[in-house]
Every structure is written in C-alpha cells, then in structure tokens.
From TrEMBL:
The entry's keywords: Antiport, Cell membrane, Ion transport, Membrane, Sodium, Sodium transport, Transmembrane, Transmembrane helix, Transport
Molecular function per GO: potassium:proton antiporter activity; sodium:proton antiporter activity
Family, similarity comment: Belongs to the monovalent cation:proton antiporter 1 (CPA1) transporter (TC 2.A.36) family.
Biological source species: Enteroscipio rubneri
Pfam families reported for this sequence: Na_H_Exchanger (PF00999)
UniProt protein name: Na+/H+ antiporter
Entry-linked Gene3D superfamilies: 6.10.140.1330
C-alpha cells in the first residue's frame, strides 16, 4: 500500500509540473519538477523512504527512454555529423570518466577509484529531454541542435556501459585490463548484434500478423511498449549490453520501411501519442525523485559520511567545474580539428563569437534523467556483503551536478545566445516554420515513394504545395482568421438546425452532424450556447441509446446506406452555406478581413469539390465542415481505389504534420501559441477524414 501511495504521489507531482510548465514557460521543466520533488519531501508529514532496486530502475526507466530516443532519431542528421557525434558520445564520455575519477579519488581517497570512475561514467551522458526543455529564449544553430540531439542518443549507451564495468570492478574488487577489454568488446558488439536481430525479428512478427489481418492498434502499441523491456532483459540474460541492444533495436525498427495505409497511419498516430505520454511521465518521475533525494539525502549524508558540509558542496562545485571544463576543451579541440580538416585559411580563431558558440555548445548539454537513473543503480552492498562505500555521497554529488548544469543551461545560455523579441520577426519566424513543416511533410511522403507513378501522391503533394503558396503569398491575421472560423461554424450550426427543423434531412443525421460541429466549435475556443445545453445533453443521450440498440440488434445495409446519404447531403449543404456566407462578406470586409475571407473561401471551395468527387456511402463517416482537403481538388471522377489511396495518404500526411509541429515547437522554431493553433487545425482536418 505504501508503494502504491508513493506512485500516486509521484504521478501527482508530475501532473502539477505539467500545469506549472504552461504558467512559467521560461523555466525549464526539469527544474520545475526538481523543485516540486524537494517541496514534497520537505512538506510530507513522514519521511519518504524511496528505495528502488538498482536493476529494476535500469530496466524500468533507462530502457524505454533510450528506445524512444532511438526510434525518433534522424538518421540523415546522425550520418552527416557522425564523426563529431561519436567524438562527443564516446571520446568525451571516456575522458570525463578518467578526469572525474582520478581527481575525486585524489581529493577524497576514501572513495575507491573504481567508484569515482562510476560517478564519472554516470555524469558522461547528456539528457535529450533536458536539452529540449531548456528556456525558450535560447537560440541554437542547426549544427548545435544536431550535435546535442545525436550526442544525447549515443552517449547514454557509452555512459551506461562504462558505468557497469566500473561498478563491477568496485563490487568485486578485481580488475584486469585484458579481461575488461575482451568483456567490453563482447558486451558492446554482442549488444548491437542482438538488438538488430531482435528488432528484425519484431518487424517480421508484426508483418506476419499484419498479413493475416491480426494486427490491431492496441496490439501494435502494446507490442512496441513491451519491446524495450524484452530486448533489455534478453540481452542481460545473455551477458551482453542491454542498453546497446535497446538502442540498436529502436534504430532498426525506426528505419525499417513500411507501407502507408489508413491502418498504419492510425497506428502511428496512437503510438506517437502513447510514447509521448510515457516518456513525459518517466522523465517527470525521475526528476521529481531527484528533488526528493536532494531533500532527503542532505541530512543523512552530512551526518553519516564524515564529510563536512563545505566538503560536500565543494565537491559538487569541483565536479561540475571538471565536467564543464573537460567538455569545453573537447568541443574546442573538435571544432579546431574540423576547421583544419576543411583547410580554412583563417583557421579556427578564438574570436568573441567563436567563444560564445563554444560555451553554448558546452553548457547546452546538461545532465538529467539518465544520469540520475544510472546513479540510482549503484548497489547497496559489495559482493562481500559490505555496504558500498560512499553510495549516498555519490548519488548526492550526481544530483548536485545535475542541478548545477541545469541552472547553467537555463539561465546562462540565454545570455550567451538570446533570442530576438521582435513581434514582426516572431511572426515571420512562425510563417517560415509553417512553410518548413509543410515542406517536410512533402519530403517525408515522397522519400520512399515514386511520385511520378503514384497519382494519389501527386494529388496530396499538390495540395500541400497550394497551402505553402497561400502562406507565402498571404499575411492573414491569425486572430481574425480564428474569429472568422468561429463565425463559419456558427453559421453551419444554424443551417443544420434549421434544415432539421424543416425536415430537409433526417433528424438523427442532423443531430450527429451537429454534435461534430459542436466539438469543432469547442476546439476553436467557442462553446455551446447555454440555451442549447439541455437540448444537447438529451440529443447526446439519445444518440448513445440509439447506437447501443443498433449494436445489439444490428442494422441492415439499406439503413446504413440511407444514413450515409443523409450525412453526405448535410456535409455538402453545410459547405455551401459556408461558401455563401464568406462570399457575402467579400465586399464589406476591410483589408485584414478580406485576406482571411479569401483564405477560408479557398479551404471551403476545395472541401466542397472534395465532397462532390466522393460517393455518398464513402462519406458516411466524413464531416467536412472546416477541413482543409484541397488536395482532392481537381481530381475528376477518381476511381474508388484512387479515393481510398488519397484518404490514406491524407491521414499519413496529417500524422506527419503533427509530428513536425511538435518538433518545430521543441526546437523553438515555432511559438507555443502558434503551435497550439496549428495542432487544432490539424485535429479539425483529422475529424474531417474521420480520424478520431
């Protein structure tokens, strides 16, 4: 029961941090979660005894985090910068292990050298989430972003493997360079080979299930979530690196070619959402635990370690200085070598701008969840049964360095690489990001497909090119556009209600379509009129009862077809209503409103043409009110196979668009408000395609 209460407490703290992150966006989320964890530990009535089995912590937290990072990796960016990334992820980690280990052991001889090496290994990896969660006032170059993200993926594995060898040497008290080298090679390459093998086997199993019609969204997502745990445990059982196996399996599964269908698009959308939530919770729990440990370890550590307060604080400062200093010198040497390799005549001069760039790359790689997760895996006892020397001290030092590097990244880096606050520049940056999002979607769609022979792909790509042209050529005020969208939905609401009252359409079909319009209005920031609230609840209850009866009694094909025809007629009527309303505003609108009117007219004209090219039965689940489906425009009498293919590609494109929006927001190329508005537009488009 105590464990269950602790889990609820941790999840509650993560939930509070998500709310505070929206309120105080200038402070990185990890710092917020650390503060919440410390506050909870101090305020709790009884002392919180947080003890997690080290092996359990490794498989429960690190394995899924690395698997998710691997499956999100940009293979092109990794390959283009492979030399620098490997240098930072392997060479820098090993140098950090040696420097921190020798210096810490020299200052405090009671800490065994192998234990000091273990601390250095834990402090080697940078945290990808911490990098992306930095203050939004930071401006990073494209190369810096690529290096930091690529480094964070690979150095986790090198840090964990180094840590495991150091801990093994500390626990057993025996170390042989020859045996360690052979064991390292076996663990390293064996983990990679096993991970690739299991990743390939997983893809074969999924394809076999898919070919027999047995794969569902639930099955695929559960299979994917269980994959890192299965790979890690299998690798550890065989004596190879579980971390490297997980990374290798994730990379292979991410880069494995897949055929795009409506089912695969739906699976990708759900899978992405599940992993986003899972990774957010895992990282949040780790940082909250860090805050708790900082509050709980202070007193016991100072009382029992024999180290004075000044010694502990001084060690934290010293180790932080060592980690940052070694990283700065390594980055300096790496960039100097790069300049020499390019044979630049001017060489690599230490100008003010160059030093700032080096400092940004150095400080923008803070330690985070992976470092603390590794530190928590330090065993409580040696193989002889004696308590592991200075375990609490090592965890405290790791926690202190994490906090220091996060503070440097959150408050110093914005001073070195500030972001301009010009409203005009921000608006222009948002528009540029929108264009980049759409171009990236086109690139992803056409990467593994032949657009010359795929007519449906050409139609979808043409639609995105038209959207890009509208963004480039127009300068529509977002506020006016949002207001106009609300007005259009209200007009469509009134049209459907009046048509239902006149008996133009079946009452059930009108109620179903009205409910969809209500959801769209809420998504646009509106709300259902209070006078219709009771009526809406009755209608919703009626629809639920009706659907339940249909499910129990079954529905004839004729009934389903008739309902599909009615919904099709309502959708066409609602689009015509929107076009007529917008056309009536053309002569009365001012300059800003005229732009918004033209923009929406293009959307609704395209949606209307889309509806008129489809069979009524196919549109049985389609609500195309505000949907931007202009990619169907111009397609004359497409075959049913073409229509199905276009819908599948539209669904895939919208999923990619959501991913690109999130990526642009995390890279700070898109403002928080604009990202939210773009996501809402995509959700409306997905509703139009029947993706709910």
């Amino acid at each position: 029961m105590e464990l269950f209460e602790l889990v609820l407490l941790l999840l509650g703290a993560v939930l509070v941090s998500a709310v505070l992150d929206e309120i105080i966006p200038r402070v990185s989320l990890p710092l917020v979660q650390i503060a919440i964890g410390a506050a909870v530990a101090v305020a709790w009535a009884e002392p919180l005894d947080v003890q997690v089995d080290p092996e359990l912590f490794l498989v429960l937290f690190i394995a899924p985090l690395l698997f998710d990072e691997s499956r999100r990796a940009d293979k092109r960016a990794l390959w283009d910068n492979r030399g620098a990334i490997v240098s930072l992820a392997v060479g820098l980690v090993l140098l950090t292990v040696l420097v921190v280990g020798f210096v810490l052991h020299w200052i405090k001889p009671s800490i065994p050298l192998t234990a000091a090496f273990a601390l250095g290994a834990a402090l080697g990896p940078t945290d990808a989430v911490a990098v992306m969660s930095l203050s939004k006032d930071i401006r990073l170059s494209k190369r810096q972003k690529t290096l930091l993200s690529g480094e964070a993926l690979i150095n986790d594995a090198s840090g964990v493997v180094s840590f495991q060898f150091a801990i093994a040497a500390a626990a057993t008290g025996a170390f042989s360079l020859v045996e360690a080298s052979a064991s390292f090679a076996f663990s390293f390459f064996g983990g990679i080979i096993l991970g690739l093998t299991l990743g390939l086997a997983a893809e074969i199993v999924l394809r076999a299930l898919r070919s027999r019609g047995l794969e569902s969204t639930t099955l695929h997502v559960v299979f994917e979530v269980c994959m890192p745990f299965f790979v890690f445990l299998t690798a550890e059982h065989l004596g190879v690196s579980g971390i490297l196996a997980v990374v290798a399996a994730g990379l292979l599964m991410a880069f494995f070619p897949r055929k795009t269908t409506s089912d695969s698009s739906r699976i990708k959308i759900v899978s992405s959402s599940v992993w986003d939530v899972l990774v957010f919770v895992i990282n949040g729990v780790v940082f909250v635990l860090l805050g708790m440990e900082l509050a709980l370890l202070v007193s016991p550590t100072w009382d029992r370690s024999g180290m004075s307060r000044s010694m502990l604080v001084g060690c934290v400062m010293l180790v932080t200085l060592l980690v940052v200093g070694v990283r700065f010198l390594w980055v300096l040497g790496m960039e100097a070598w790069r300049a020499r390799a390019k044979r630049e005549r001017t060489g690599f001069g230490l100008t003010k701008a160059a030093v700032k760039s080096l400092l940004v790359t150095t400080l923008a790689g803070p330690k985070g969840a992976v470092t603390l997760s590794i530190a928590f895996t330090i065993p409580y006892y040696l193989s002889t049964g004696v308590a592991f020397p200075h375990r609490n001290d090592l965890i405290f030092l790791a926690s202190g360095v994490i906090v220091c590097t996060l503070l440097l990244a959150n408050f110093v880096v914005p001073l070195l690489a500030p972001k301009e606050d010009s409203a005009e520049e921000d608006d222009a940056a948002d528009r540029a990001a929108e264009v980049a999002i759409l171009r990236n979607v086109i690139a992803e769609l056409t990467r593994e497909r032949d657009s010359k022979s795929d007519a449906a792909l050409r139609v979808v790509a043409k639609g995105y090119e038209e959207r890009i042209a509208r963004i480039v050529e127009s300068d529509v005020a977002p506020e006016r556009l949002l207001q106009l969208r609300r007005e259009v939905v209200e007009r469509q609401r009134a049209y459907v209600q009046q048509a239902g009252e006149r008996g133009d359409f079946a009452r059930e079909a009108c109620d179903c379509y009205s409910e969809r319009l209500d959801r769209m209005a809420e998504m646009l920031g509106g709300r259902r009129p209070e006078r219709h609230a009771q009526k809406y609840l009755k209608r919703r209850a009626f629809l639920r009862v009706r659907d339940a009866l249909k499910g129990a009694l079954g529905s004839s094909g004729e009934t389903v077809a008739a309902e599909a025809v009615e919904r099709y007629r309502i959708a066409v009527g609602a689009e015509r209503c929107a076009v007529e309303y917008l056309a009536s505003l053309g002569n009365q609108a001012d300059a800003d409103e005229a732009m918004a009117v033209r923009y929406l007219l293009g959307e609704h004209h395209a949606a209307l043409r889309t509806l008129e090219t489809r069979d009524a039965e196919e549109l049985g689940t389609l609500a195309a009110s505000v949907a931007d489906l202009q990619s169907m425009a111009g397609l004359r009498k497409p075959s049913q196979g073409q229509r199905t293919r276009i819908v599948e590609l539209e669904a895939e494109a919208l999923r990619l668009e959501l991913e690109q929006i999130q990526s642009m927001k995390e890279q700070d190329r898109l403002s928080r408000d604009r990202a939210r508005a773009l996501r809402e537009e995509v959700y409306l488009l997905q509703m139009g395609l029947g993706i709910e």
